[in-house]
Every structure is written in C-alpha cells, then in structure tokens.
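Morning!

This is the sequence you dropped in the shared folder:
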Amino acid sequence: MHDKVKPFVCEFEGCGLAFGFKKVLQRHHLTHTQPAPPRVRKVVKEVGLIDGLVGTGYEDIGRNIDCIVEGCEWRFTREYDLKRHLASFHERKVEDIDTTMADTSD
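The structure's back. Tokens below.
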C-alpha cells in the first residue's frame, strides 16, 4: 500500500506545504517569489436570441427568407429550413405551409 510520503516541504514562512516530488515544490516556490500574472477580463458581447442560438457573422451570407409568423425574427437561407422551423417551432403542419411570400430578397 502506498504511504503518502511528502518529503519536500516548503520552507517559506507560514507555508509548510509538503510535496511528494521536488519539481512540484520548485514550481510551488514560484507562488512565493513571482507575482501572479494580471487577470484578463473577458469582454461579454450582448447578442440577440437568434445570434445566441445560431451564432453571429451570418448577416451577409444570403439569409433572405424571413419567418412568415408575425413577431418571429428567424431568417433562413433555404425554404426547406423555414418549413422545418415553422413545423417544429410554430407547430404548423408542413402540408399547410405556403412560404411563397417568405422570400424578401428584392
């Protein structure tokens, strides 16, 4: 059975942490001798619901088919995707969907 022997003890005042390997103790010494690197804060960008779900950067790639349900902001590249969206998200029957008015590319 392994005895948790930690013969390498930190000798900095008030520390006393012990380690099983000399290399680990040497790395630990850096916490006493070198300042911590500055913490970099991430910039959080506010995104809308659609961009949050599908990602950003799709503004200029031909999503010219708007959802035909009033108030829905989803846009699609293919009519098939619009029909699938209408059937699953808005619970419309696929047979009843007329998307001919959905294309807004003028």
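Headline: Strands lie at 8-9, 18-19, 65-66, 75-76.

More detail when I'm at my desk.
O.
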